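Risk mitigation, structural track. In case the binding assays with PBG fail to produce interpretable data, a predicted complex structure has been prepared as a fallback.
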Amino acid sequence: MGYPRQRPRRLRSSPALRRLVSEITLQPRQLVLPLFVADGIDEPRPIPSMPGVVQHTRDSLRAAAADAVRAGVGGLMLFGVPREEDKDADGSAGADPAGILNVALADLAADLGDATVLMADTCLDEFTDHGHCGVLDAAGRVDNDATVEHYVRLAVAQAQAGAHVVSPSGMMDGQVGAIRDGLDAAGHADTAILAYAAKFASAFYGPFRDAVGSSLVGDRHSYQQDPANAREALREVALDIDEGADLVMVKPALGYLDVVAAAAELSTVPVAAYQVSGEYAMISAAAERGWIDRQAAVLESLTSIRRAGADVVLTYWATEAADWLV
Ligand code: PBG
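Fallback model:
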């Protein structure tokens, strides 16, 4: 008596035993690197709220993408930052084949071929002068169905430019089905859709809005989800799968691991989770102050997202983490 027969610590007693019984894998191929490319800049421009992340020029983007591929990263997610004077109410620079996002996609498609998966953010907010993810009606509200038509044009332009995967992130109803139909009609049946299915109206996107020079005044509560609603998130996931999503995503990641787990349980397609800019900024800021161990915190956060059930994790640390993992 007094000595436990059950000793879970036995399996923790050596590195070899711990390695043998580790439940979760974290591998470079499971990571996707989000990248920003800006029009009209000569040098990469640092993003102060995301130390180590920059707005790329077309050339520096090619170098960063090649480095990610070298590290074995599973995919790249590209965001375009147009010049201020190219923004308009309809975000028309997004669908323009000569627009920054599409020319950069074509650059990477030419450089990398099928060496990694090339993804594009399919949304209007980077390109609109009002900063909303859609076009506005006469009353100034985001017009769902008119916006979806714009998304179809964006998606087709991105597929044309060489994206393997388009990623509608605006949370408009019916966006996935409409994009599927539009891609098929334009001869892009092989282009996949990664749906931002459960995207919450989060304060943790703050640094991203610096990163893309967002013009947003107001908020996105009429289209992004209430952080309180997990059941509604599952409805969004189910609808997107029904409309033809090839992968579904939950975003942000760390505050929503319950939703990631529930989505993974329900989903018949692979599930992604997006470790967003504010999550990056929090760990970076604490590490800069010496308050936490940066590498350990990054790997622990990524492992947690995988443990919750995400097959794929979008993270600004993708290349760096991939190098740590080999
Ligand atoms: C919208 C979009 C956003 C992010 C990815 N796609 C911003 C928003 O919804 O306001 C945020 C990503 C991040 O914070 O890292 N195009």
